[in-house]
Amino acid sequence: MAEDLRSDTLFVALTRPQMFAGVTYSFFVINMIVAVELFLVFKSPWVLLAAVLVHLGGMIASLREPRVVDLWLTRVRHCPRVKNHDHWQCNSYRP
Q1: Beta-carbon neighbour count of residue 24 at 10 Å?
Q2: Helix 68-78 vs helix 25-42: crossing angle, to nearest 10
């Protein structure tokens, strides 16, 4: 255990998700779709500023763990709130 863990650059590069502008590609596509739809609805350039701010928030969230959005979506999908969550303060796992 005295040996330091060594990370191989090639292994890290092959296991990271596809990134675009500092966020995962799926986050980038979702952000752009929502921004374009909101721009078409509101016809205001302020929506584009909001999209840039959301993108910067995604970049900050992806610094430590690039798959933070995918992990959150998996958690929401598989661990929904149960009816008695207010009483027990916990969720149940649904496979």
Answers
A1: 20
A2: 80
- Residue 28 CB: number of other CB atoms within 10 A? 17
Where are the domains positioned within the chain?
9-88
> For residues 68 and 61, is the Cβ–Cβ distance under 8 A?
yes
- Token pair 């840039």 is found at 52
* Model confidence pLDDT, tens digit, residues 79-91: 777 777 778 777 7
- Cβ-based neighbours of 21, under 8 Å, separated by 6 or more: 28, 55, 59
pLDDT at 3: 67
Residue 37 has pLDDT above 90, yes or no: yes
